[in-house]
């Protein structure tokens, strides 16, 4: 699946997007954040406060307990500050 | 009644009068247009701001605004609405966002414009980066914006 990062999550991870293949044991958005956080220092920094991170699956907001099966694109970003 | 909906995300500035004219052109059923523009302030909590840079999530930003537009149209008798959100570097005094709502009567237009702005601030995927004398940094989200959006939720 494709993963995208925005704003300071993108800056901390050090890339805007990538393709990942998490193991089948990673089923929810929350679990995916935990898995990503263990991929290295930049990821650990980006996801150090998982409760702050917002997520979207295929362009729609989702909660941390949302299932990721079948997702084409998952995005992680800080709380929004538009308008 | 077919609502005339325009949603755009662009770097360029917008012309408010031209957008109102486009929304009401060749229609005689509109009795009220409400216009809200968000403008880049030159200071934030006493700190002088040199500029803002707006980042967005292409695809989702348009989809999220469209969902809010549909909700507004289902809740109020609107003849049309326009949402334009700028991205890129924006200097103090420049426009950031425009919301126009058109209806037969003012109440629906006022309420829908406020609803759209509250939802856009809390839910549309845009992020502001602030440049000031002290450096640059991402603007923190305000809990008051979440509270403003939450008050429209029907209990």
State the separation between the terminal residues of chain B, measured CA to CA: 28 Å
**Overall tally of domains of chain A:** 1
Query: Strand-residue fraction of chain B?
Result: 35-45%
The secondary-structure element order of chain A is EHEHHEEE
DSSP summary, beta strand count of chain B: 9
Report the uncertain regions of chain B.
Answer: none
- Count of folded domains of chain B: 1
- Main pleated sheet of chain B: 5 strands, antiparallel
CATH second-level architecture of chain B: Alpha-Beta Complex
Q: What structural category do the secondary elements of chain A indicate?
A: alpha+beta
Rounded average pLDDT of chain A: 97
Question: What do we call the CATH homologous superfamily of chain B?
Answer: Molybdopterin biosynthesis MoaE subunit
Query: How does the overall form of chain B come out from the CA principal axes?
Result: globular
- At the first level of CATH, the class of chain B is Alpha Beta
- State the share of residues found in helices of chain A, binned by percent: 25-40%
SS summary, helix count of chain A: 3
* Uncertain regions spanning at least 5 consecutive residues of chain A: none
What is the third-level CATH name, the topology of chain B?
Answer: Aldehyde Oxidoreductase, domain 3
- State the CATH architecture of chain A: Roll
Structural notes for this entry:
Chain A is an alpha+beta fold and 83 residues long. Chain A has a single domain (2-77), classed as Beta-grasp domain (Ubiquitin-like (UB roll)). Chain A is 27% helix and 23% strand. Chain A has three helices and five strands. In chain A, strands 2-1-5-3-4 form a five-stranded mixed β-sheet. In chain A, a hairpin with a 2-residue loop joins strand 3 (54-57) and strand 4. The radius of gyration of chain A is 12 Å and the shape is globular. The N and C termini of chain A lie far apart (30 Å). Chain B has 155 residues and is an alpha+beta fold. Chain B has one domain (4-150): Molybdopterin biosynthesis MoaE subunit (Aldehyde Oxidoreductase, domain 3). Helix content of chain B is 33%, strand content 38%. Chain B contains four helices and nine strands. In chain B, helix 2 (60-75) packs antiparallel against helix 3. Chain B is globular and about 50 Å long. The A-B interface holds A 4, 6-8, 56, 59-61, 75, 77-83 and B 38, 54-57, 59-60, 63-64, 85, 96-97, 117, 120-129, 138-141, 145.
